[in-house]
Amino acid sequence: MAGIKRIRNKGLDDPFIVDDHTFERFSQVNDVFSRSMWDDRVRDDRSDTFFATYRRPLTKWRKANGFTQRDYAIRNASWHVADIFAEMFEAHDRRDGFLDPLSMLRDGASEQVDVGPPDQASRELKQVSEVFGADLIGITEFDERWIYTERYSAADKAAKPNELPDGLTHVVVIGQEMNDSLIKTAPSALSGTATGLGYSMDSAVLLGMAQYIRNLGYQAIASMNDTALAIPLAMQAGLGEYGRHGLVISPELGPRFRIGKIFTDMPLASDTPIEFGVEAFCNQCDRCADKCPAKAIPHGEPDWQPVNISSIKGVKKWSVDGEKCFSYWSKINSDCAVCVRVCPYTRDYGKARNRAWRWLAGTRFRGLAMKIHDATGGSDRLKSNDWWTG
Ligand code: SF4
Ligand code: SF4
């Protein structure tokens, strides 16, 4: 089809099909969380309450399993570290990790260390990431397509420049595991603990790794939800494949991880995208679309149609309706991870039987893998009270 470019990255297909004629870089102003501050189509009393519950745990909102004060207490505590960074420079119109990169408070070295050939530098950086606590890591080239055209200023309720230094060449992408047993209780305030811990761990690991790179004399911008779209960078860095629910599915953790990234000019060797049968599986599986309480996940094939202004234009993919998704979050006063819970790829790959399932899911017997998943109650919800009693 004319105008459609499937970009080659070291001989492997670009994970997304991008149409050069209709593609437009994304502005963070149109991200649904930014819109919840400026756009009346997303913002309402419920969404204001939703955000407020992260600072002041609800005590008597609902008696329902998973939404008691105890559940909000643990959820909010899990966010505490990420919140400290996010709120540290709010007076300067910064929300570190969400609307702005994480602030680096200590200078790096003024002279660059010779880190050797790129392969060696990447290997050493991966070793450092492991001891610092990163669960997944991949490296890709700096790709301007996924950099936000603008950041969002919460103070001005308007766009502000997305400034990055010159000379950045690579993006180090990390993944932080989200706790399996907590995810099984979704939707609940309790399951939001997995999200909060993912962000808090992400902040700590990113800051440590970025400072290490700076101590070698190179630039390092540590970023979570700010600065750039994480999903395409994670796929290009080889962390996993794109799923119908709009999340990256990795062979090690399925979709159960949060993504962080570091932009750098350190001379590194890049990883390549991977493929293990997820797209073919999602083409046959609709579990996330069927079970999404907001009906925000599409059925059918990937397409070019943006759902609303919170979708990127000119990329062929499954696009989740962020407005519907966020509206449901506001309704239940917590983030929802039902799509992660019901995804058959959400399983513990430390177990041989689950590695065997992953292999089967990547073959033409994927239908059998789905049947096994359903027959063994793979998507079942764990009651929050049962989580608390162990
Ligand atoms: S988080 Fe919940 S509401 Fe949003 S897409 Fe996933 S299942 Fe649907
Ligand atoms: S639930 Fe099924 S369709 Fe949805 S992302 Fe997972 S494997 Fe794909």
Widest sheet: strand order?
5-8-12-9
Query: How many domains, as an integer?
Result: 1
Chain oligomer state: single chain
Radius of gyration: 20 Å
- Number of helices, counting only DSSP H or I runs of 4 residues or more: 14
Bound ions, cofactors and other small molecules, one mention each: iron/sulfur cluster
Mean pLDDT: 94
Largest sheet: 4 strands, antiparallel
SS-based structural class? alpha+beta
- H/E series: EEEEHHHHEEEEHHEHEEEHHEHHHHH
Shape: globular
Number of strands: 13
Taking the alpha carbons of the first and last residues, their distance comes to 55 Å
The fraction of residues assigned to DSSP E strands is: 5-15%
Task: Identify low-pLDDT runs.
Answer: 1-12
Helical residues, percent: 25-40%
Features of the shown structure:
globular; binds iron/sulfur cluster; alpha+beta; single chain; 390 residues; four-stranded antiparallel beta sheet; 14 helices; three-stranded antiparallel beta sheet
Explain what the structure shows.
The strands form 5 sheets. A 4-stranded antiparallel beta sheet has the order 5-8-12-9, with helices on both faces. A 3-stranded antiparallel beta sheet has the order 1-4-13, with no helix packed on it. It is built from 14 helices and 13 strands. The relative contact order is 0.16. The chain has one domain (18-388). Helix 3 (69-88) packs parallel to helix 6 (192-215) and helix 4 (118-132) packs across helix 6 (192-215). The protein has 390 residues and is an alpha+beta fold.
